[in-house]
Design a protein that fits this description.
Elements: E1 5-8, H1 14-25, E2 29-34, H2 38-51, E3 56-60, H3 66-80, E4 85-88, H4 103-131, E5 134-138, H5 151-171, E6 176-180
């Protein structure tokens, strides 16, 4: 990863921040995408730049606005003059009990978890082909095992799993496309937890 430039969406906190730190530790230059968490993103960038000067940048943008996505990719590529990787990590996640699902929830959950990764990949494709780079999509175990009361989220992640396979075909052999599907991850915020799984 030495001097490779990677854009990580939703990189200010939680899994995205961990991914950014690991890539940086491996020698990559990292572009942290954020939307509302600018203060956290700037703090993480300062931390990483203190380790290695001019190795981390921040780009802010709303992934629900399709017109913003090409700008986010271009800003990331301009930060270090290249783009070798895209990690589609940003995700909305909340319950949508069946019978109370509205269009707002559908647009938000499908937008961040499925539509944004598609249009980010499309915007980044030419640069990633040039670099013979990679895309990693953060899927979820619930793409295969839907979570009760999280129907829209589960469907969006199932779509992302299918998109990952489709992009692997569309962008081969120049760009490698993979997905990772972790299980439940405890959030650092107090009160954000699930009951133990039934056996």
């Amino acid at each position: 990863m030495q001097d490779r430039a990677v854009l990580v969406t939703g990189a200010a906190r939680r899994i995205g921040a961990v991914v950014a730190r690991r890539l940086h530790a491996a020698g990559a230059r990292v572009v942290l995408h954020c939307h509302r968490s600018r203060a956290e993103a700037d703090a993480l960038a300062a931390e990483l730049n203190a380790v290695r000067e001019r190795s981390c940048a921040v780009v802010q943008g709303d992934l629900l606005e399709v017109a913003e996505l090409a700008r986010v990719v271009e800003a990331a590529a301009e930060a270090f003059g290249r783009l070798d990787g895209l990690v589609n990590n940003a995700s909305s996640f909340y319950a949508t009990p069946f019978g109370a699902i509205g269009e707002r929830e559908w647009k938000d959950l499908m937008g961040t978890n499925l539509r944004a990764p598609l249009f980010l990949a499309q915007a980044a494709a030419a640069r990633l082909r040039e670099a013979r780079g990679a895309i990693v999509n953060v899927i979820d175990i619930h793409a295969e095992r839907p979570l009760k009361d999280f129907a829209v989220y589960s469907v969006a992640k199932a779509g992302l799993a299918a998109l990952t396979r489709a992009l692997a075909i569309e962008l081969a052999p120049d760009v490698r496309v993979n997905g990772v599907a972790p299980g439940s991850i405890l959030w650092p915020e107090q009160g954000a937890h699930f009951a133990p799984a039934e056996k």
